Amino acid sequence: xxxxxxxSLTNSAGASSSGSASGIRHxxxxxxxxxxxxGSDRAFVxxxxxxxxxxxxxxxxxxASQRYAPGITNPDEASRIESFTSKPRPTWRFKVEGDxxxxxxxELLPDRAVAAVRWSIAEDRRGFTLHVRPFISGRDPxxxxxxxxxLRTHTEKRGWKLSWRPYEGVPEINAYAMxxxxxxxxxxxxxxxxxxxxxxxxxxGIFHSPLFxxxxxxxxxxxxxxxVVAGMILPEHPVLWAETEAxxxxxxxxxxxxxxxxxxxxxxxxxxxKRK
Length: 276
Hints:
20 strands, disordered C terminus, eight-stranded antiparallel sheet, six-stranded antiparallel sheet
């Protein structure tokens, strides 16, 4: 792809999600999830982006590219993108192996600091496993982030929820996914923007999940646990997906109840009765 289309989502909660078709971040303001701090108008870039790849019987296929100084794109697999559209939500179709395809969609939930990414395999194939490594920071949208010893690298696990608190005063980053998370803290250095500026990002680990036809894998990210609870993302019903308007409650009219017939008593010779 010679041209790299960009996309951007915003909502009334002050949250945003933005990026490019290739996955390369062209400016420091692009991020998978940016949100305001609690009780504040100050914005933070929380989840900058991610690496994603699929292992399959023929090898490995990457679903995103990163650009590092001095202008090196790695992995450079933009040719796998068969199509991209930003409407109604950013959606990619990747050719991953033979005639197999994986779709990737990103949604920013209305009125909440919650971003969701969904991956689906388009054909009924076996042996496909998705891996996702998020990049986080907690910086100002106009700032640059660099490797330091202050960032808290610990992943807190509370049942099926993961959380990261990179810095004091920055909203807690929460993640939920029906998959395995391997804690593997690493710094990634020298991501490069179009203006030549560079930054370093922290990755707490990798999500893993098999991909099955008709059963998407979703990674849900939020700025604060309250956002998830308010959105009713629960372990037994994790999917909060792609509704631009909240579904309207349906009012069901109760049918008028007919009086139940009285039980008939059949008298037997023994003098006992039986209700039917």
